[in-house]
Description:
- By secondary structure, this protein is an alpha/beta fold.
- Helices cover 22% and strands 33% of the residues.
- A hairpin with a 4-residue loop joins β11 and β12 (200-207).
Amino acid sequence: MTARSTMASSGAEHSSAPEATFTSLALPMLIEHFGERYNCHALELGPGIAANVSFLTGFCSRLSVEDLHRTLCTLGEPYSGQRRLYCPLFQALLPHSAQAPFDLVLLWNLLDYLDHEDIRRLSEHLATLATRGTLLYAMVSTRTRICASPPDYKILDSANLMRIANTPQECDGPRHSQVRLLEQMRGFRVKRSFLLRNGMQEYLFEKV
């Protein structure tokens, strides 16, 4: 199935500043999708930023937080530094609960910091935590250079995000193609994708 892609009409251009705001096109879709139901169970794989927790609990009855990248980095090499992450421990870090599958998983830009094999392992495990129709929100960079460690993303309101860089250092970006991502994320399809003016591609993956 061919996903629809839309270029954002607004949003900040790429900036090396530690903080930059931009408009998300996927976030309003998530709010509309889950807005009428308060039984949404969400998994936040970024840091538990207070503003994000407050926003998400506005339409999610349950929210689980696991700052996956930082957790992996505490394990030491080969999980940190300039090397790509390779970790078979997703099942231990994200325990499976068949009685409480997640309706929404927020990956943010985690995929830019995992190697291809790790993306496959993570998506396979997330599939066990999901049910048909579960949505995965992710963003990947289309640029050749990215921050050496994942920036944080703060939800400002229903359509705007703030990117907060944690380091001025950069590294080569993987520039994931949609075809390659779908090869690694079997069991999910691209529901929508949006190319933003700041060089980020937003994805809403759906469990099939």
